[in-house]
Amino acid sequence: MNNLQVGLTDTTIQTDVLIIGAGPTGLALACQFVRYGIDFVIIDKTEGVTPYSKALGVHARTLEIYEQLGLAQQAVEQGAIAQKARLLKGGEVRAELDLSNLGAGLSSYPYVLFLEQSKNEQLLYDYLKSHGKTVHWQTELESLLQTGEKVTAHVKTADGTSQMIEAHYLVGCDGPKSPVRHALGLEFSGSTFERVFYVADVQIDWKLNHDAFHVCLLKDSLLIFFPLKGENRYRIIGTFPEEFSKDEGDVLYAEIEQRIQEEAEFELKVHDVEWFSTYKVHSRHVSRFSKGRCFLAGDAAHVHTPVGAQGMNTGIQDSYNLAWKLALVLNSKVDNIILETYNQERLENAKHLLQTTDRAFQVAAGSDGLLTFLRTHVLPLIAPHVIKLDLVKHFLFPMISQIGIQYRHSSLSQHLGDEQFNVKAGDRMPYFLVEGQSIYDKLHQPKFHLLTFSNTPIDFQTLKTELESQTTEFVDFNFIPLDPQVVEVFGTNQAFSVFLRPDNYIAFISTETSLKPVKTYLKELSTV
Question: Does the N terminus or the C terminus of the chain have fewer Cβ atoms within 10 A?
């Protein structure tokens, strides 16, 4: 019985986790809980999935997560792959960059996918509904109180009545103004860019093809046109100059279009405006991602410039990191001390993210004289050549796609024995092919994964038998031949094992192909 919608004020709802906010972050967290069999309630004060496109870029790491949910192919089909980038100056194309296979050999998804936030939310929401779950829309958090045992929240339902929900844990995925963050009294320090940003989804008639995103190289502003699915549909992102004095809420669409026309410096007709918004960008992160039994994720924990399309993806990564840890605790597999590593790992990432996006914005639109000269005169000359270099690809794609995020400093990463390997504990599991298929095809189950790489089949049978006899039902085992590609990726031709966390980050690498390191690691999870 759906107490929230019926509005029964005399009944307290009991659940494992209460999720506040059903944007991409909250929905992604709920989908992970479905995988782990965790009971949850998810609420949102809005009427349903956002009708606005909002965030746009979907990166490889997010698509790898979608793959585990069976959603990656749908996402790719509904979106548009960033095939090319064209750099424009003075109304003319000065350079063209091929981006279609930028991350070749690094992921099954070696590109950036343009797929509006509204469509991402719908994919995730449909997944929940297909598994018998739903979001309680038009339901708003009024107050919360936590003890050492539980969190009690009072919410106001769609019909205006009050409802009490008791949960073991609460996660605030409720955006940059986060009521949960305010209730917890967590600091949200940082700065605000004085520039006014604008974004608009439109149709454009112009001389340029719809097969690329177009970057106007300007003196002190940002203007980018991203192709969307559908004929002549584009997302426009830009900034007003520093001297523009209006508040973001006072900007008229006519002023935005005038700005676009002036800065593009060539003839274009903008029409059929689907949505537009103006805003000032904040660069902030919380002092901690958790307090007691309450956690923050997504924009509630960090906000930054839109350069690099990192926001939505980072929120989904927050959820992915937290979900398996909460699931282990709630399923009584490990002590709740493991939950401290969520703050440890994601706070470090948030700090780094803000630094890189701030720098990227200054490079893309800063008014510094040297940067302006490099951006407008040098970049068009060298970018088409530099982008082809393997060294650049192996640096740029992991950074943008988020496959390069690592937790080497985490207490969950054990480095004893990984000195001789190219890959270290705390790294994302590298992508490579096994018998023509992605290694990630073997990593879909919501479990730890023990991968043994060897050319001696007896290793497989012995370990498999021993693992099954120990009833470690939350550890999956795979034997993989030590072929040349594996040797190249890991840097050794000797038999070894890789133990993966459920989020497919490496817990440890060992040359000892037995279960002893696994048993030791799992035992120590309660004391990290």
Answer: N
